[in-house]
Please model this.
Amino acid sequence: MGDATLGLLRGTLDLLILKALSTGDKHGYAVSEWIDAATDGSLLVEEGTLYPALHRLERRGLVSADWGVSDNNRRAKYYALTRAGGRQLADQAATWRAYTHAVAKVLAEGDAM
Amino acid sequence: MSGLRRRLFRLPPDPDRLREDVDAEVRFHLERKAERLVREGMTESEAWAEAHRRFGSVEKLKSQLAREGEVGMRKIAIGDRIRQDLHYALRQVRRNPGFTLVTVLTLSLAIGATTAIFSVVDGILFRPLPFPEPDQLTVVWADMTRRGGPANEWPNFPNYYDLKDRSHSLQAVAAWDGGPVTLTGLGEPEQIVAGYVSWDMLPEVLRVSPAVGRGFAPSDDEPGAPATVLLTDGFWRRALGASADALGSTLSLNGETHTVVGILPADFDAPFVNGAVIWVPLRQSRTDNYCGRGGACMHAVARLADGVSLDAARIEATDIARQLEEEHPEDNTNVGFTLRPLQDDMVAGARLALLVLLGAVGFVLLIACVNVANLLLARATSRTAELAVRSALGAGRRRITAQLLTESLVLAVLGGAAGLGIAYLGTELLVSLAPAATPRIEGVGVNGRVLWFALGVTLLSGLLFGVAPALRTARSGLDASLREGGRSASRGRAGMRARGVLVAVQVALALVLLAGAGLLVRSFQNLRELDLGFRPEGVLTLQIGLPQSRYPDADARRGFVASVEGRLGALPGVEAVGSTSWLPLTGFGSDVTFNIEGRPVPPPGQRHAVWFRRVTAGYPRAMGMRLLQGRWLTGADDERAPKVVVINDGLARRYFPEEDPVGRRLNLGNPDDPEWREIVGVAAEARYFSVAGDSRDALYLPYDQAPTSTIFVTLRSSRDLAALGSEARTRVADIDPSLAVAQVRPMEAVVAESLGSERLVTTLLGLFAGVAMVLAVVGLYGVVSYSVGQRLGEMGVRLALGAEGSDIGGLVLRQSMALVAVGLAVGVGGGVALTRLMGDLLFGVSPTDPWTYAIVALTLVAVATVASAVPASRAARVDPIRVLRVD
Model:
């Protein structure tokens, strides 16, 4: 992965989506924009893969979806974080932090050797 | 909340809709992306290409989304649909508070009553005995069937010991007996019930160990061993204040000092000796015991050996009985052993009544379900428009049926929940009403099994009353749809047919219940009007135990009884006083064989047994017994006078059919006994054990010629018996303050108590039948008046065409009574089949008694006529102009 953009680790996308929606209801496009902006474009998200993830989260009740009218007056499907989604986000974020911390520590030791 | 609402109202999965949504969503994304890229300087076509590139394969994604979406939505849809149906059902329930109240009330009463009865049935019949391996517990009776006697006669010690020694299929056999004892030394003298057991009963047969102290050892159970006693937890708390020093302390029972060796666990629930609060070793042995091989004097309970079936044990017991017949032909000819499971044996007397009650209350539940079904059907018609709209919006028949069933289940669950409360109260009420002699009643309560039963009954009744209306409504709702405006004549008629069938079913069920109740009422009347052979009105009875220690011999007892009768007879208002060894109808008595002078002695096994009581001279007058011939026993028939006896007319008829028994002589027990007793009189038969029991051959012996240690004093007086009772107590205490006077009560109370279970069963069945009749009639009224309402137009037309109002009224009445007639016919058929099953509960009335059926049917017809006459007269008064104009 010498490229400047990183591929996504499994399961990360859900976390990113939940995080994106925690800042406010968004349609799918806005979610992809938000991830792009928040990661300075360093994560490579094939935008299409966003939708299966969104729909899966919807079915699991972690996000809810409603058809609404976008800022430029077009019909768009808006996603919002449900309470269960909020809890899931907190859980996953904590897990992720612990995980990255542990991996980082291992790698740091490896460097010291 | 919006998400929830969306989920609640999501439509069923629709692949086209799903695809459109995905298309729109993807299109929106690509457009926005392209717009942005254009803003950043790309050309339109470059921007579109870039947007697609970044998005990935649009088509692949679309089909993936559609596929996953469909599967996922289907899963959600099922859950959603249930939630949605539930939500909708709850709304219906809230929206029709009147309807909901009536149905839930009806159901809760029916489910509650059914559950309450079940909890009693379960507690008595089904609940396993609270002992390890309860199925191994077996009662041992003497089988006298080959002698023309009962299969469950009391055995005696010699045969019991032989069975105990020889049997291998019984790992333990133990003996018990029980009765009142006088407890002195703890405040007022008191009569308590004691259970007597051989030492091995608790550890070996029941496998119960005391909570505190030790159980009985073989040495405690030897004749003449120092007296020991085990206390029940309840007695230890009540009488000794749960004292820690109870162990090793002493109790004076019938004047003998007993050492407390242990306290039984709080949950010990003895399967015999109702109400026993203390347990004492029997202290009998093979050679030294209170009845010989010919006697019937004790009870035996055994535990089957591990892995041995009851049948195998029976075969072995029959074998042993045969050996004993050969070894002791004098006493054991034609005597066998009967082995019965202990639990069955305990509840045998209550089983039929309980099952009849359970069946009856089940009928009430059925009728209630039919009523609710009828209400639902009636309401369904008014909901046709609503359902038509739903079906127009795409709900299929299955969907609507499911919806309607959900509503029924919601109603059922509400009814069941309320019914549970009623069940708790009802169970408590039943337990408090149950006669004291009801077996196993203490442990009855709402337990886990009962709760499962209630849940099952609730769901079942929900389906029962819900299915027919749901199917009907869904069908008619769809067929009729909007165009008929909810007034389709043909559909209305089909609905009416369904409701008519339901009404007929209700009438049939109610008839069966009424017939059952009517039979029991007649049977109970027969019992009450029965000639008891004595007049219980105005008779006060009291029981006095004379402890061996203070009244060791006949003289002491005779003296006591004479002075008690003297003192009590002198009380103001006492017209007669007398005493007897056993009061009638208390379930106790003694029997003896007898021989008539000058007649050949029958071979062993065929001797005549007769029940006997010892009575004082005043007893017949105090009890109001009738003398048919000769004279009564008098005060002159004392220990010094020649031995005499009064026989009852049953005995006189059987053994002296052609001759005058007065002046003949007989002896008792051993045919060689030189003591001949002259028959001096013949008394009318009096009920012996129970009101309903067979009258028995019996004889009366003068108390003074063989005084017993327990006596019942009877006083005849026109005074208030309660006041007399307390005066009598005081007088007895004046003579001997250490005596316990028990059971001070009017003889009428004794009679009532002996009819207690009959009274309760009759009352309950009567109650159920009454409720059933009301429900059925309400159902009929509802259907008829509803039908009148539906057919007002038709009535109007008929009237306009020249029919008289009375014709219309007659038409309605005829149609309604046709339903009733069908119900009655079916009910009589079913009733005759079912009431036959309760034959053993009936006294003096046939289970198919035509009078009862006629009265019951007429009652139903009368009530049904009234219920139909109201709507019929409404129909007759229809104003054709107004009705036709409305249409």
